[in-house]
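[step 3/7] fold_predict: job queued, chain A
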Amino acid sequence: MRPGLVAVTALVVLVILSAPVQAQEEAEEEGNVIIDVVLPLSLAFIMFSLGLGLTVEDFSLVFREPKAFGIGVANQMVVLPIMGFAIATIADLEGELAVGVMILACCPGGVTSNILTKLAKGDTALSISYTAVVSVVTVVTLPLIVGFSMDHFMGEEAPEIDIISLGITMFLLTTVPVLIGMGLRRSRPEAAGSMEKGVNTAAAFLFVIIVLAAIASEWDTLMDNIGSLGPAVVALNVLMLGIGFQSAKLLDLEVIRATTVSIESGIQNATVGITVGGLILAAPDGGLSTLSLPSGVYGVLMYLVIAPFMYWRISSLGESVES
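[step 4/7] structure written:
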C-alpha cells in the first residue's frame, strides 16, 4: 500500500498548493474547510481514480481514429457550450444559475461516462481517450468560457476572477492527479491494479456526497428555481445525447462508436462543475455556491435521462445478436 500512500499524500500537497490561487478571495477569508479543502481534495481524488485506469496508449486513439475522436471532441468542446448558452438564455435563468449551466457545459466527461459506455457496449477505449484529452484541454477552455459567461449573464454583479489563476487551479486539481494516477499505474502496475477497485468505489462515494451536499446547501434556491433549472438541465442532457448519436451516424461511424460519442457528449463530470462553482464564488453562509447548483442537480437527473438511452442501446444490441 506504500505507493498508494505516496499518491494520496501527493494529492493533499496539490490541494495545499492550489489554495493560494483560488479565484474567490472572499471565500478564502471565511476559511471554510469544505470549500477550501474537502471539495478540492475530493475532486483531486476522483481525477486520480481516473488516471489510475489510464495508460499512454489510451491517448493514441487521437491519431489512430481521428474522425471518431474529432466528432466527439467537437461536440464536447464546441456544440455543448453553445447548447448550454442557448438553453440558459431560453430558460431565462438567473445570472448565477445561468453561469452554473455554462460551467457544467464546459466540464469534461469522467469515470461515469466511461462506465456507462462499457455497460452500453460502446467503445470503452475511445471513451477513455475522450475523457483523458478533454480533461486536459478543459484547463484552458473552461476558465475562458466561464469568464465570458459571467460578464454576459451577471454583468456588473459578476465578481472579478483571475482566469490564469483559475486555469492553474484546474490544472492542479484535475490534470496533475490524472498524471499521478497514470504514473503509479506505469511504475507499479500490480499495486495500481490492487488499488483500483477500492479507489473507484471511494471516488463514487465521494461523488454522491458532493452532489447531495451541493443540493442540500442550496435547497431554498433550488426550490425557487426548480421549474426552470430542472427542465434546463434535462434538456441539455437529452439534446446532447441525441446530437452526439446523430452526428456520429451522419458521419458514418458504426453504432458502437456512435453510442460512445453520444454518452461522452451528453454525460459530464458534475464534480468538476460543483468544485469550480465553489472556487469562483462561495456562498456567504459558508455553503456551496449557487454556481454549483446546476451541476449538483445534473449529477442526479443525468441517471434518469441516461437510463432509457442505455436500455435502448442494450436492447438493440441484443436484437442484432439474435438476428
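[step 5/7] annotate
Residues 100 and 291 are 4 Å apart (CA to CA).
The longest helix spans residues 219-250.
exit 0
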